[in-house]
């Protein structure tokens, strides 16, 4: 499955938005997609450009750009998929990579 890149209008050069996933390129150029569902109760997260965080407006959970929890009530990071880039096209490279012990997802 191939995804088309869509840039957000913000100053964060490594932020990409996909439907239904979110995308992030780390400082070493590795590209990740994140599932936008908050791991607390499943609400959609949105990008906070001022703080460079993914924020859940339902219950206040916050995640850093890579999807790691920085503020509860969520205890697990956003689910993450690695993707491959070929000729400006991104496609899934692996199944979900972030798994917590006891997590059934």
TrEMBL record:
GO terms for cellular component: membrane. Pfam families: Rieske (PF00355). Residues 24-92 form the Rieske domain. The keyword Ribosomal protein does not apply. Keywords: 2Fe-2S, Disulfide bond, Iron, Iron-sulfur, Metal-binding. Its cofactor is [2Fe-2S] cluster. The keyword Iron-sulfur applies. InterPro entries: Rieske_2Fe-2S, Rieske_2Fe-2S_sf, Rieske_Fe-S_prot, Rieske_Fe-S_prot_C. GO terms for molecular function: 2 iron, 2 sulfur cluster binding; metal ion binding. This is Rieske domain-containing protein.
